[in-house]
Amino acid sequence: MRKLIAGNWKMNGQRADGTALAKTLAERARGSEAPDVDWLVCPPFTLLHLVAEQLSGSPVKLGAQDCHFEEKGAHTGDVAPGMLDDLCCSHVIVGHSERRQDHKESDELVQAKAEAARAHGITPILCIGETQEERDAGKAMDVLTRQLEGSLPAAGEGELVVAYEPVWAIGTGRTATAEDVREAHAHVRAQLKKAYGDTAGAQVRILYGGSVKPANAGELMATENVDGALVGGASLKADDFWEIGKAA
Ligand code: PEP
Prior knowledge:
- This protein has helices spanning 15-30, 45-55, 81-86, 97-102, 107-119, 132-136, 140-151, 178-196, 198-203, 214-221, 238-247, and strands at residues 4-8, 38-42, 61-64, 91-94, 123-128, 161-164, 205-209, 228-231.
- By secondary structure, it is an alpha/beta fold.
- It has an eight-stranded parallel beta barrel with strand order 1-2-3-4-5-6-7-8, surrounded by six helices.
- Helix 1 runs parallel beside helix 2 (45-55).
- The N and C termini lie close together (12 Å).
- It binds phosphoenolpyruvate.
- Residues 8, 165, 170-171, 209-212, 230-234 line the site of phosphoenolpyruvate.
- Phosphoenolpyruvate binds at residues 8, 165, 170-171, 209-212, 230-234.
- This is Triosephosphate isomerase.
């Protein structure tokens, strides 16, 4: 499967630096030296429009970091999937651990968001992952099963990406070992096949996220069932993000 290298800019970037970063990536991805991967950037809502302009005509795709599950209405501060479609977003992150923590998002809510995104032809990137406490208690795989059972969109039309992001590895500089990642991704793959059948379950990309950097990307991306990376901090530096794509 062709790898997907996705950058989650989180709550970072203003017009000047966001535009410059998108422009650099778009230029590089158009060039003949570009690695054979799919590129995606997920800026904050405030920059989607400007970044879309920079990416126009380049192979770098645009994604958002969250969406509401309803079409429109009285939801102050929220953004509907149709609005993201209108801005040419091809992907949207749902269920990121920071949203599960900061906004108390449940699996049920994440599932509703994923289904709403697919109804608009937007591919959800569904994030799951265990905390340090859950891993130490030997419950990491159980947590992944519970999150997937609770939040996978119903079988049907539309693509899906799952991102395995151990909470203890996000923004901490600690990366899961290749063996941790191999075990978790094999488990996620088995759950996907159980939910969607062998063929459809094998086609879902599973990304790894958690302190991915140029130095560890090669080993992580070579691990079985790792179909790309969801990159936070390192996606804010064009050179690092690019090197991760090359290592994949
Ligand atoms: C993320 O937020 O999805 C992430 C993986 O962050 P970082 O790469 O900074 O750990």
